[in-house]
Amino acid sequence: MHTLTEFPRQRLPELLRTMPKAELHVHIEGTLEPELIFALAQRNGVTLPYDSVQALRTAYAFTDLQSFLDIYYAGASVLLHEQDFHDMAMAYFHRAAADHIVHAELFFDPQTHTARGISIETVIHGLKRGCDTARDELGISSALILCFLRHLSEVDAFQTLEQALPHREHFIGIGLDSSERGNPPEKFARVFARCRELGLRIVAHAGEEGPASYIRDALDLLGVERIDHGVRCVEDPQLVERLVRERIPLTVCPLSNIKLRVFDTMADHNVMTLLEAGLCVTVNSDDPAYFGGYLNQNFLEMFGALPTLDARHAVELAKNSFDASFVSDDQKTRWHAALADTVAQLKQGPVS
Ligand code: HPA
Ligand code: ZN
């Protein structure tokens, strides 16, 4: 790693863009671009409460998590058929390939669709087919993580799990998203216990808008292996120590945090504090169609606003993204080697 201290600063943006990386926190419904929302609305005969792509984009002025979620769920209303879910996933995978993402673990929200009368099979088959196409045509590895909506009841989550189980081989884990405040982890302790019994990987959004205690409870009551967001852990130094000791990764989403006002500006983001504490931090795009950019945009804006971040941090973040992923150790080793190759090449001259 010491050789990275000599990495030319002017090549940092190119390193950020071209280094192989994994994305572990992206809601596939949050990748629906306004143009695709309108195209699907037309294809499916759905009437939108916006006259134009521009009018929809103008509505993306969020003040907090809930103001975003209201628009995000409305956007998903154009998804009716298996092909729609496939096309949405493929649009994301093309962006991912451009950002040198080699592996993506995608969140999806079945309840957003089953509540509208769409079968869970339609959702899962469409997304799964997208993942297969991405592997075959783009060489991207991927997996699906089913999220329960925490503003709905635990009974609803149990029903969703039952509906999903016939398709068990198509998803690797369970997450928890939607409105955090007032919907603590304890509300879902029993359904997550069942998910663990089933051998599913466990993650949860915690410490985005909710307090640090929700992160602790996600660990103790849900058995999570990664924390999504988690930036508010710094409010509890003992919790930070525990996250470091147990090497629980945080999937941090910089542009999301600015757009949803978790931090005022990118210069105020606490990612440097998290890294200096020794946490396994990863960078992710969350809902890139709504928050102003895909994964490389997150890296570029974050490094642009925080000049203490350098090439060593870039490489650490890419390594962390592989280490925190749910792939085999052999696969992680291969991606670490590919990362080292990119860094070595870049030190000699521009790659692309
Ligand atoms: N937080 C909570 N729920 C979500 C998010 C988020 O950032 N994106 C999509 N659902
Ligand atoms: Zn999220």
For this entry, give a set of tags:
single chain; alpha/beta; 17 helices; 8 strands; eight-stranded parallel β-sheet; TIM Barrel; 352 residues; binds hypoxanthine; binds zinc ion
Description:
With 352 residues, the chain is α/β, with parallel strands linked by helices. It has a single domain, classed as Alpha-Beta Barrel (TIM Barrel). The protein is 50% helix and 13% strand. It is built from 17 helices and eight strands. The protein has helices at residues 12-18, 34-44, 53-58, 65-75, 82-98, 110-114, 120-138, 154-164, 189-197, 212-222, 237-245, 254-259, 271-276, 288-291, 295-305, 311-323, 329-348; strands at residues 21-27, 101-108, 141-149, 173-177, 201-206, 226-229, 250-252, 281-283. Strands 1-2-3-4-5-6-7-8 form an eight-stranded parallel beta sheet. Strand 5 (201-206), helix 10 and strand 6 (226-229) form a beta-alpha-beta unit. Helix 5 (82-98) packs parallel to helix 7 (120-138) and helix 16 runs antiparallel to helix 17. The chain is globular. 48% of the residues are buried. The mean pLDDT is 97.
